[in-house]
Amino acid sequence: MALNLAHQIGALSGTQIPAEITNGEQPSSATATASAVWKAPKANLRCSTPPESVTPPMLTPPLTPRGAGSRSPLMSPMLRPDLSAVCQAYATLSPLETAEDVEEATAWKEGGKKEVKKGVPVFVMMPLDSVTNGNTVNRKKAMNASLQALKSAGVEGIMIDVWWGLVEREAPGSYNWGGYAELLEMAKKHGLKVQAVMSFHQCGGNVGDSCNIPLPKWVREAMDKDPDLAFTDQWGRRNYEYVSLGCDTLPVLKGRTTVQCYADFMRAFRDNFKHLLGDTIVEIQVGMGPAGELRYPSYPEENGTWKFPGIGAFQCYDKYMLSSLKAAAEAAGKPEWGSTGPTDAGHYNNWPEDTAFFKKDGGGWSSPYGEFFLSWYSQMLIEHGERILSSTTSVFEGADVKISVKIAGIHWHYGTRSHAPELTAGYYNTRFRDGYLPIAQMLARHGAVFNFTCIEMRDHEQPQDALCAPEKLVRQVALATGAAQVPLAGENALPRYDEYAHEQILQASSLKIDGSSDDREMCAFTYLRMNPSLFQPDNWRRFVAFVKKMNEGKDAHRCWEQVEREAEQFVHVTQPLIQEAAVALAH
Questions:
Q1: Phi and psi dihedrals of 447, rounded to 5?
Q2: What is the pLDDT of residues 318-335, one digit of tens each?
Q3: Which is the catalytic residue, given 491, 521, 566, 580?
Q4: Which of 282, 303, 428, 569 keeps 20 to 30 A from 336, CA to CA?
Q5: DSSP sequence for 485-527
Q6: What is the DSSP string of 380-409?
Q7: How does DSSP assign 178-234, residue by residue?
Q8: What integer is the mean pLDDT of 309-319?
């Protein structure tokens, strides 16, 4: 059987793309190994010499005659003529595996010395509606073409939201994994790893939410009967994105606590997909709040309640949170502090200096009462994370998967003293206090990964009147995770396809802080998000080059111009597949 497009792309990327076999045909043996084709050269290829002095790869190198059985698949006479030159070019970019490489790989498989892999693996977020309300894969043809394209580009894997509101929708303990079983098998077929997000929040009402998936029907019914199960602000507005953490330990959901519900859901996931854990499913990201992030729903976009860059509002006015606040105040010997949260902290769309609580001089945030309240409010969030992580690590013990937690990148008003938007979200971070170190230390206690957003942003791109500082925030988080010795992973907060954003991600993921030269890098980066725009020709070309650079690592002696030339060749060859993915996703 002649090489099809899947084999051709697989050969170029150095990863074998499984092709669908029809009509009883046997799979083709014409495949290429990653080490033979896509491995970075060991020679120093910095661009310090003029382009014309660099010897280009030989497109038609002299070949030693071989028998048919040992002929390189890249030089196969069955290869389409228009692809042969490109395949030969890729084949000559790097040497074949050395005996040392083979020994290292064998040792690792046999439990010996672990091979140290440089670079930051790139995952891509799937569309939020990848699984339909009918529990099937949405736009299956588009999904198949897209996954093949991503694998061909050198992407490590994909991130999938596993929605509580879809799987356990009708009744407690009744799980329908239909669409997810099919989607995970598709990922396995294409050789992609999976970060599975246990999404215990509703979809809809946050930045980038393109569909609506509410909490399970029986959970919403319980919230209708007891509205205090929902987070509540000082004006009585209820938020139904996520069950209030104030009732984590109370059996308020058909005799179970919310944490027990989450643990049972994850246990059912583990049991149903145990054959994929550690091989295809390599990470479990456990949702802990709105948008899957460990935070309070302090800046809800739904119905225009909050708009960037407002400070948000405290979410501690349901009866369960107030009961905890009262107990904490009494324990502190200040019962008068336990009846309510701050009443002078402004409204969702105020700025810090508009409020008595957050203003820089004499603001309530720095008073004894403010310090008591903010300590309690942030500690409630950390304890929520502790409870869920304890359950998560117990459920997945021995499953050979990473556990991760997502933290929001709240960068607006970061340049103020009070950091008001971070405080309302539950991060007790001010100019005089590190709010991310306690979170990192909590994650470290459970061996979890600290996943952080806004990696693509630069300070000057954001409104300076709102004193936005995403770069400074990312630096602070990198220092906190380093001090706590917890792995750091990243995401971009908003869709970006430009090289300027890619360069910022490359810089941030290298974790080069104050000129440090240690080996620490982000353990992974997840790109938001797979959609038709990603597969537009220019965007796709830039993305392919970006993935290649991320895979190279911060110490790679590679000429980026050469990487971009390789990407150009690759995009040209894969154009039919990319067009198919873009068209299919758009319908």
A1: 65, 30
A2: 999 999 999 999 999 999
A3: 491
A4: 428
A5: T--EEEE-SS---SHHHHHHHHHHHTT--TT---S---S-EEE
A6: HHHHHHHHHHHHHHHHTTTS--EEEEEE--
A7: HHHHHHHHHHHHTT-EEEEEEE-S-BSSSTT--S-BPSPHHHHHHHHH-GGGEEE-T
A8: 98
Residues 6 or more apart whose Cβ sits within 8 Å of residue 426: 294, 295, 296, 298, 377, 378, 380, 381
**pLDDT at residue 224, as a whole number:** 97
Token pair for 119: 């670079």
Average pLDDT, the chain: 83
pLDDT band at residue 205 using 50, 70 and 90 as cut-offs: low
The half-sphere exposure of 17 on its side-chain side, counting CA atoms within 13 A, is 28
pLDDT at 117: 66
491 noted as active-site residue: yes
Residues 191, 18 contacting (CB under 8 angstroms)? yes
What is the DSSP annotation of 291-360? GGBSS---S--GGGS--TT--------SHHHHHHHHHHHHHTT-GGGSS-S-SSS--TT--GGGSTTT-T
Q: pLDDT band at residue 71, thresholds of 50, 70 and 90?
A: very low
* Burial call 348-376: b when 16+ CB within 10 Å, e when fewer: bbbbbeebebbbeeebbbbeeebebbbeb
Q: Which of 293, 422, 521, 580 is the catalytic position?
A: 293
431/37: higher pLDDT = 431
Give the distance, in angstroms, between the CA of residue 327 and the centroid of all CA atoms in the same chain. 37
Full DSSP string of 222-277: HHHH-GGGEEE-TT--EEEEEE-GGGTTS-TBTTB-HHHHHHHHHHHHHHHSTTTB
pLDDT at 177: 97
Tell whether the model's pLDDT for residue 257 goes beyond 70.
Answer: yes
Please, which residues have CB within 8 angstroms of residue 570's CB and are 6 or more apart in sequence?
12, 13, 86, 152, 153, 544
* Residue 454, phi then psi, degrees to nearest 5: 65, 30
Encoded tokens for 188: 């396995």
User: Given this model, what pLDDT does residue 29 score?
Assistant: 35
Helices 5-13 and 575-585, packing angle to 10 deg: 110
353 is known as an active-site residue: no
Residue 18 above 60 pLDDT?
no
* Lookup: tokens for 132: 């339909």
d(CA 525, CA 453): 10
